[in-house]
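ARCHIVE CARD
Drawer: 12
Card no.: 0347
Subject: one protein chain, sequence and derived structure
Cross-reference: see card 0346
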Amino acid sequence: MRIKLFACFFLFAGVFFKAGEVKAQGGADSLLYRQAKLEIWCETMRFIYRDNGADSLLQSLNCQDWVAFDKSMSPNYLQTRTFYQSIEKPSIYSGYTTYNAKLQKLVEEIGKKLRSSPVRAANQNRVQKVDSLQASLLVLAASPTSVVPVQADSEAAPEEVAESRELKNIIVAAPQEAAEEPNSPEDDQMEWNEILQWLMLLLLAGGLAGLWAQNRKLKNEIEVRMNRRKQEISAISRIKESDKPENKKPKPVNEPKGVTQAEVARLVRAEIEKVRREQKARRQEAAMEQQAARRPQEPQTAPAEELMAENRPAAAGREEARHEGEKPGDGIFYDKLPFKGGFHQNHLSPQRHPDSIYSIQVLPARPDEAEFWVTEDQEVQQYAMQNGLSFFEEACDYDQVEENPSRVRTLERGRLRKNGHLWQIEKKVKVSFE
């Protein structure tokens, strides 16, 4: 999980820095494009003043930056501001994606507008000057980083020469240019880049938060499972310690190098038979103790044969019921624990024993269905909980168990369905440990 978290972090960080580099490169290209466009318009305005014989207006033209240039055209001498506004529109750049293409389109529109004047079209010399101007402007459009030098004649003022030298600087570090042309496509492109970067930052933050929450949830689940497993292991350890003989030392046993599946199955069957014999012996002992408790007035020296003789009719009746029919009866029966997903009918007992952990009641209206629950007897429950949670795992649903519980409370009864000699568990008992 941590590897995935760091991988996602570095991936988003790489995309973010790459987008920053693209934005920085686009900003540099946009600055060169704006500088080249300013130079094209300054050369165009000088040409208009000279072509109309108004060289004195060259002193009023300020090409230091876009703000100064726009302010110098405010008097609108020779309709230069009107000429500029009629061409410099976003619509003329529609369909052009590169800066060079936009500059060439601007030069083409300027030449077309100058040739459309009837007075200038009638003079071939003036038309040739327009061609020469357009050639110079195309050089600027083809190479935005280069500046065409201004041909300063003898009549040009010193201020004009200074302005032309200033135009030769390619990169102009003027913070005011960033605020010019707010509706231009270049500014819109920069804004979209910033929005994209913010979106990537938000996605990165959301991804990190989601991974953190998932990691925290996984840690909590693992902690709950570990606590439950520790309780089960401690219970099994107590069982092993209680079953360990005190005076008998275990002999060293050489474990086989390999155990086959048949040997494992044989060992499991032998262990199951051993448990069944122990359960049967305990039930017989409990039955004898109950019979003796019911007759306290009789002498204690009564032979065991009499008790066995008295219990033979009941035992014979139970054996006959087991072999003749599938129904154990409509009363309540008891069993120690389920085996292979249910309770075997031959193991059900109508009498409760010290190890009768589960109580089973057949539904009168539906003989093939039954309800079962944990026996509400303190001694039986203490016996079950001394052996850990192994008696409750297969037939019960329960939440986290507190350490050393003393009581089991049945919250909702379970349901059984008869399938041959087996009462299969359809719904487990819902219990809580207190």
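Annotation on reverse: The longest helix spans residues 185-243. The first strand starts at residue 332 and ends at 335.
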